[in-house]
Every structure is written in C-alpha cells, then in structure tokens.
TrEMBL record:
Organism, scientific name: Acetobacter garciniae
One of the record's GO molecular function terms: transmembrane transporter activity
Presence of keyword Transmembrane: yes
High-level lineage: Bacteria, Pseudomonadati, Pseudomonadota, Alphaproteobacteria, Acetobacterales
Residues annotated as transmembrane: 35-57, 63-85, 106-125, 137-162, 174-198, 204-223, 244-266, 286-314, 353-378, 399-418, 430-453
Name of the protein in question: Cytosine permease
Protein family per UniProt: Belongs to the purine-cytosine permease (2.A.39) family.
Length: 457
C-alpha cells in the first residue's frame, strides 16, 4: 500500500477512519451527484441571505440589476470552487495536503495555517449564530446554552465524517429547497411592483454585488476536495466539476437573490432576518428552524476542515505520524473547547470580529488558488507523486518550492494598495470609490510571476 494511505472506511463503520491520508482506490465510494447536494444545501443559510440583502441595499441598484450582478459573480466564483473540487477524486487527498505538491512540505504551512484559521473563525461565528437562532425559536434556552448544544451537534457530525456529512446534505436539500421556494412565494406576493425598477443602474453598485458574490464561493476553494476525495478516480474531471459548479452557483445565488428581494420589498426594516421573518408569515418559523439545522450542518464542514488542516500542520513536523479517527476525535474536542471558550468570552463581538478577520484573510486565497489551478491543470495535468506528500524531506517537491512561494507573496503584495477591509485600507482604494479589486489584479500577476519563476529555475 502507498505510503500515507489507509485501508479506508467500511460501509458499516459509523465513524470515518481516515483523516489526511491518501484514499486508495479500494476505499473509494459515493456518487458525483452528492457534490451538487452538498454545495447547494450548505449555501442556503442566514449568512448568505443577510449578505445578499446588505449588498443589494448598499449598491442602490434596481432589483434586476442586483440579481444580474449576483448571478455573474456566483457563476465565476463557482468555476473556481468546482475546479478545486474536481481535483479530489484524482488526488484522493484533502485540499491542504495537496498544497505540499505546489509549495513544498514547509512552504505549504502558511496557506494551511490560514486555512485552519478561516475554519475556526467560521465555526466560532456560526456557533454564536446558532445559539441566537435556537434562543429565538425556544426563548427558554439561553444563547450561550444554545451555542453549546449547536456546537456539540456540529462536532458530532464532523467526527462521524465524510459519509454522514454527505448523507445529511442529500436529505436536507429537499427541505431547504422547498422552504426557500415557499419563502420566495410569500415575499413575492407582498412585494410592490415598483421594487423591481427602483434606483436603476450604477457601475460601482454592480461591481460591489458582483465582487462580493465572486469572493463568496471562492472562499470555499481551500476545502472543496475534502468532500470529493472518496469518489472513484474513474469519475474523471468533468462530472465532479459540473456537479460542484451547479450546486454552489444555484444555492448561493438563490440565497443572495432571496436576501435582495427581501431588502427590496421591505426596505424600512434594517435587520434582514427580521425582514425575512416578517415577510414570510407562517413559513417564517419553519424557515428559521431549517436555517438552524443548516447552520449546524454547515458548521460540521467547518470543524471537519479545521481538524484536517490542523492535522496537516502537525504532520508536517512529525512525518512518521499516521493519524486516524482517534486523532480526528481528539483534535475535534480541542477545537470545540477552544471555540466555545472564545464564543462564551465574546458573545457580542465574536461574529463581527471573526467575519472581519475572515474577509481580511481572503487576500491570501486568490494567489493560492491561482497557483493551485495553474499547477494542477496546466503544468502537471493532475499527475503528482502521492508518496512524496508524506515524506519528511518532501520527496520530489522538497521542503520549499521557491517559485510558488515567491509568486504567492507577490500575489498578496500586489493587492495591498487596492484592498480594503476592517483592519486596513490601501492608499488607492479611495480612488476606486471603496471597491476592492484585488481579486481582479492578483490572478494575472500571480500567474505570470509563477510561470516566469519556474522557467528561470
């Protein structure tokens, strides 16, 4: 058996055996359509709805123009997500382990560390949101207690692993889709006709909606192959690509558009979720209950990804370690305690602060995904030496791949003058009327630097 491989999960095992090891052909299972249900279902949640409502209100676009920007942004962002997801069946590896083939064993640590921080931030934020949602549905349950209960459920699902995560999203898709369609119907009936054409078009507003939607799905790229790596290699690239593309684009677009429709129909209500509750009538409580379940299910992805990233970090320094289910369970417990501690200590500020941190860290995802896609699809055409990923010396990929690491830093640096977030505003941002275009400039610069440096090596 290949170094770093595991025998795989039996269909009768409840808890996933594997962690970051290579999934051999004998352990592959599942169907490509599961990628559609996963990315569709996880995208129907309060956070994207609130985001859609917020950007639609801030853009001062007509509803039709806002919808066009949302659709274009999510389609382009989903192309990136899907291109990373399609790598999973070919590699049989978690996304962050694969980064060693592009950046080297130690060179990959930076992106793996940032990826882990993103997961932990999302998990903590969603824990607070789930506590608030549960308290809203059952007022006798305090927000703190609700957060603990929701986090325990999410960690349990994450520990059970790959099969359970896909199963819940296969079942949940039908409930979430039906509830969202019913909510759409309730809002549309009450929406005044003038809401469709109010405001008109402006370029900056369209770019705001477009760029936000684009970055939304791109932000998932660092863990997409975690949920496709068990599929048989024979499924190829096209089928998982299309399934992931359709699921993520459809789910995220519907959530954003629903938020935009709610904002247009009830602009007097500043709180988007209050507007959703008011506009959906009797469907509202059902929708909020399903949202709570979906927050928990989505948070299972966050804790699952966080654990895999943390194991990858530790294994970088302990090459002989072959972590299994025991390691996943133990590290999941540490993640649970740590994130609950942060959420409990800062219940009012955890969500906005972590969202600000997550948005700020997205600056590193654009150059990483540019190098990832170029290396996989153009340079190596999906052919990697899997055993080298688990060797102490990095095998044929070494400890540092200097062209990739240098191009990555160049791709980050070029965004700084034109980037704005809660912690920093680049000197050129005012000239761009506050619009962040780093995602547009970084890919071609990173790509050219990467190719030039590899050629010069």
């Amino acid at each position: 058996m290949m170094e770093g491989a595991v025998s795989g999960d039996s269909p009768y095992e409840i808890v996933e055996q594997n962690s970051t090891s290579f999934v051999p052909p004998s352990a592959r299972h599942g169907q490509v359509k599961d990628l559609f249900t996963l990315w569709f279902t996880t995208s129907i949640a309060p956070f994207p709805i609130v985001t859609g409502a917020t950007i639609a209100a801030q853009s001062h676009l007509s509803l039709l123009w806002a919808i066009s920007a949302i659709l274009c942004g999510h389609l382009l962002g989903s192309l990136v997500l899907a291109a990373c997801s399609a790598q999973g069946p070919q590699m049989g590896l978690a996304q962050m382990v694969q980064a060693r083939g592009q950046f080297g064993r130690y060179g990959a640590l930076l992106i793996v560390s940032i990826s882990a921080l993103l997961y932990l931030g999302f998990f903590t934020s969603n824990t607070v949101l789930a506590g608030q949602a549960l308290h809203g549905l059952v007022p006798v349950i305090g927000i703190g207690v609700g957060g603990v209960l929701a986090a325990l459920c999410a960690v349990t699902i994450g520990v059970l692993g790959y099969r359970t995560i896909h199963l819940l999203n296969r079942v949940g898709m039908w409930f979430m889709a039906a509830a969202l369609l019913a909510a759409f119907a309730c809002v549309m009936v009450r929406m005044p006709a003038a809401a469709w054409t109010l405001h008109g078009f402006n370029t900056l507003g369209w770019l705001l909606c477009f760029s936000t939607a684009l970055v939304w799905n791109t932000s998932y790229a660092c863990y997409t192959s975690d949920y496709s790596r068990y599929l048989p290699q024979t499924v190829g690239l096209r089928r998982p690509f299309l399934a992931s593309l359709a699921g993520s684009a459809a789910g995220a677009s519907l959530s954003f558009i629903f938020g935009a429709v709610v904002a247009a129909s009830m602009p007097q209500l500043g709180d988007p979720m209050l507007a959703v509750s008011s506009a959906t009538g009797l469907v509202g409580p059902v929708l909020l209950f399903l949202f709570l379940l979906n927050i928990i299910s989505h948070n299972a992805l966050n804790v699952y990804g966080a654990v895999l990233a943390l194991i990858t970090m530790l294994q970088t320094f302990i090459a002989s370690w072959e972590p299994g289910r025991g390691a996943r369970i133990g590290i999941a417990g540490v993640v649970l305690c740590g994130c609950l501690g942060v959420a409990g200590a800062f219940p009012d500020s955890a969500v906005p602060v972590f969202i600000d941190i997550v948005v700020a860290l997205l600056i590193v995802l654009v150059p990483w995904v540019t190098i990832n896609l170029c290396d996989f699809y153009i340079l190596r055409k999906g052919r990697y030496d899997i055993a080298s990923f688990f060797r102490a010396d990095g095998g044929r990929y070494g400890l540092f791949d200097w062209p990739a690491c240098t191009a990555f830093l160049i791709g980050v640096a070029v965004q700084i003058p034109i980037t704005t977030n809660a912690f920093f505003t680049g000197p050129l941002v005012p000239l761009l009327h506050g619009i962040n275009i780093g995602w547009l400039v970084s890919p071609p610069v990173t790509l050219l630097a990467f190719l030039a440096l590899r050629k010069a090596r």
